[in-house]
Amino acid sequence: MTLSLSHADLAALHKASFTLPRPWSETEFAGLLSMADVFLTCGDGPSFALGRVVAGEAELLTLAVDPNAQGRGLGRVALEAYEVEARRRGADISFLEVATTNTVAIKLYLSHGYAESGRRRAYYAAPDGTKIDAFVFSKPFERA
Q: Which residues are catalytic?
């Protein structure tokens, strides 16, 4: 399902959902969504996934769920919608980055068949200046 949220709505939801990595601005969402290979999906409720597909590879750019609605499966639904659209656009594999401290997201990705394929040392900067590693996860898509 495709969301019909404005760039301002996306930025507000992203800000409510993230301090690490830093929240994206309305201008950043507008710029990303102006690219032909970028797409936005969601399930029901205040959540979305932003991804892109290039040369058969999908990248989950971000996935956000309103903190007041967490624990209701909205992240799972948004991730599944992202995967369906990525496959529809010809992706054979999906990649994503996640902070090593984001245990909720890591649990979600692992439960959906993603596996660690790399690690980026000191990739994210926390608001206090601390550097945090990122896992790179990947998931091959089965052929239909």
A: 97, 109
In a domain, 118, yes or no: yes
Render pLDDT for 26-65 as a digit per residue (tens, 0 to 9). 999 999 999 999 999 976 778 999 999 999 999 999 999 9
Q: What is the pLDDT of residue 54?
A: 97
Q: Which domain holds residue 123?
A: 7-140
Q: Please indicate, yes or no, if residue 1 is contained in any of the structural domains.
A: no
Cβ contacts of residue 51 below 8 Å, gap of 6+?
38, 39, 41, 58, 59, 60, 61, 82, 85, 86, 94
pLDDT tens figures, 56-103: 999 999 999 988 877 788 899 999 999 999 999 999 999 999 999 999
Kindly report the CATH number assigned to the domain that includes residue 97.
3.40.630.30
User: Is residue 2 domain-resident?
Assistant: no
Asked whether residue 121 is assigned to any structural domain, the reply reads yes
Give the confidence band of 20 by pLDDT, cuts at 50, 70, 90. confident
Secondary structure of 16-46 in HEC code, one letter for each residue = HHCCCCCCCCHHHHHHHHCCCCEEEECCCCC
